[in-house]
Specification:
Layout: H1 11-24, H2 31-37, H3 45-50, H4 58-68, H5 72-86, H6 90-105, H7 114-121, H8 124-132, H9 141-145, H10 154-166, E1 170-172, E2 186-188
Antiparallel strand pairs: 1-2
């Protein structure tokens, strides 16, 4: 089944899932053919996007939306994800995050408790969640704070980690624990 863009808060993860879907349906057969869908001349386009070595351009986003036959609302959501990712100030991040939330709202309106509201009320909480699963994360909130742009204090990161634990959105990986830097000490309960 084609990935639903509304299930994603990171356009990079969405593109990886789109690639897997297109590969399974034989609409693309390689990273190079996916790059052609985006009208990119870089054969490792998807790998560079996935690994955060480059950002997607508006033109590439347009080509991908056309290839995926995304309707206007989904295209706007995809663009909001991109702009959120590439925003450089707190104000920009917050503005785009609110656009993301409002776009997702119409898909399914549900009452949420205050703890879940806290997860969505601060743009950096999902970012902290993602960084906690990074292979180099060593159980140090300051490590996460140093990697978030625009900057977020270590105290806010600690609060975000506490919230994520209370919501059971993260858990300790029983295999790696906190020892060693080669594997992430935390893993998602669900993706």
């Amino acid at each position: 089944m084609q990935p639903d863009i509304y299930d994603f808060l990171d356009y990079r993860h969405y593109l990886v899932e789109v690639f897997e879907y297109l590969k399974a349906t034989k609409k693309v057969t390689s990273y190079r053919s996916f790059a052609r869908l985006a009208d990119s001349r870089t054969p490792d386009f998807l790998q560079r996007i996935r690994d955060r070595q480059q950002n997607i351009t508006p033109a590439e986003a347009t080509f991908i939306c056309r290839a995926m036959k995304l309707p206007k609302k989904k295209r706007l959501y995809f663009e909001a994800l991109i702009n959120f990712d590439q925003a450089t100030t707190h104000e920009e991040k917050e503005w785009w995050f609110l656009r993301i939330l409002s776009a997702r709202e119409y898909k399914s309106v549900k009452k949420i408790d205050s703890a879940k509201y806290q997860y969505f009320s601060q743009w950096y909480v999902p970012v902290v969640r993602e960084l906690m699963t990074h292979p180099d994360y060593n159980d140090d909130p300051a490590w996460i704070a140093a990697r978030i742009r625009p900057r977020v204090s270590t105290a806010k990161v600690k609060k975000a980690i506490s919230l994520l634990k209370s919501l059971e959105l993260i858990r300790r990986d029983p295999k790696s624990g906190t020892s060693g830097r080669s594997t992430a000490p935390f893993a998602h309960l669900q993706r």
